Amino acid sequence: MPLIQVHEVSVKFEQHLALQNVSLNLNRREIVTLIGPNGAGKSTLVRVILGLIKPYSGMVVRQNGIRIGYMPQKLHIDAVLPLTVARFLALSGMQEPEVLRNTLAEVGVKTELLKRPLQQISGGEMQRVLLARALLRAPDLLVLDEPIQGVDVNGQYELYELIAQIRTQRGCGILMVSHDLHLVMAATDSIICLNQQICCMGHPAAVSQHPAYLALFGARAARDLAFYSHHHAADQELPVKNFENIIPIVPAENLPRVPR
Amino acid sequence: MDAFVWRALIGGVGVSLVIGPLGCFAVWRRMAYFGDTLSHSALLGIALGVLLNVRPQVGIISVCILLALLLVGLQQQRHLASDTLLGILSHSALSLGLVTLTFIEGLRIDLTSYLFGDLLSITVQDLYWIYGGGGIALMGLLKIWKPLLSMTIHEELAKVEGVAVDWVRLVFMLLIALVIAVAMKIVGMLLITSMLIIPPATARYFAHTPEQMAWLASIIGSIAVTLGVVMSLHFDTPAGPSVVVAAVSLFIMALFWTGLRAGKR
Questions:
Q1: I need a surface site. Which of A46, A122, A151, B242 has the fewest CB within 10 A?
Q2: CATH number for the A1-67+142-243 domain, one of 1.10.260.40, 3.20.20.70, 3.40.50.300, 1.10.238.10?
């Protein structure tokens, strides 16, 4: 049974339809990445999955008793709140020093960082601290909203490596939102291309040649993507799925009507 | 020393101990204007107390709670921002309170003492209110401390981790309402927000953790009250404003002290 089943979910904000009939499954040991242009509803879909927004129609079925670790997109902490990294991590509820040490080692954060004010650490360190906070809950599903934001290019690559490693070692399911189309391709098992509705989904290499993807991101992005996934496939001999494995785009007029 | 001075000191320190930690959250959550709005409604509470023949504190707490709930309700609409809503509520409550008071026949109240506090006339019964109500507020805050801190840092993250954010927010608003009712006597409704904001702001310069900031704010508030009472007795100045002047002086000293320390580095 999947960790989470999203079943024909639509979300409406006032008159605007943010998500339209979205269905997907999230499984253990699987990395799924959401891509899409700005305003495509990526964050909305994440919020629905996290249970922060109630869908207008459709439903989200969560496997009984699973824990979700969430890494928010941005964490701005006002300077008026004195908060060390250690105190921030303790708010996860996990107080065991042994677990804390292991988790820090896992995400590559030095223990010296614990005493520093949260406002004074670098962007890359912040992302790792946020990841550690999510991991401290021993999650069955890890939800990462733009995990490489504010990280330099080298750091981005490392962070994706780390995420892949977490999947292998912990066996949890991972849902990522990403803006970048390049690095993420090597780090994910499947891609969901979202623009209010799911345009196409499947293995990165296959998605990159799908007409819906090309329409959304253009030929140049597709070339980059093909290069990366090609590199990826040659490296690890991952099967490149055929088009049959991809959900076709549904023309708008065939979509079930959502009352406005 | 006269008994009234002791009562003033014991009452003032009691209020400071509670209002410090609560004020920290008001500062962290940027709710200074919210405190202002609730305290401005106090006159309406006093009028209500007279009309219903209950103690003014009961009237004040009821009106504050009502206003807090009204605000939560109004925040659901999307056309007006929170500070606009607070401005509307704050001043209409103040004016409504003043108008209502003049309608009550045969009532002669000392308006200044409600506006600026009447620290030196604290009665033993006031002390019961301060320590009873303050104790409840402090215990309540202790109970919601961790979830409230968590949602102050990131509300959605807290919610995903299982914090009942709507409940915690409501309890916090009720605690502020309670403390405002209790603190009225000390600095008065126009100056309560200063005690909510200035001691925590001063404490920030010395604190490294949220908890440190909370108890430092309590201590700094207590010092300010003591200095204010002394000043009021010595120079015959109004007690409430004297307490605020003392608090601001401590704040300025903290500002200079950290400036000096940074300069030495």
A1: A122
A2: 3.40.50.300
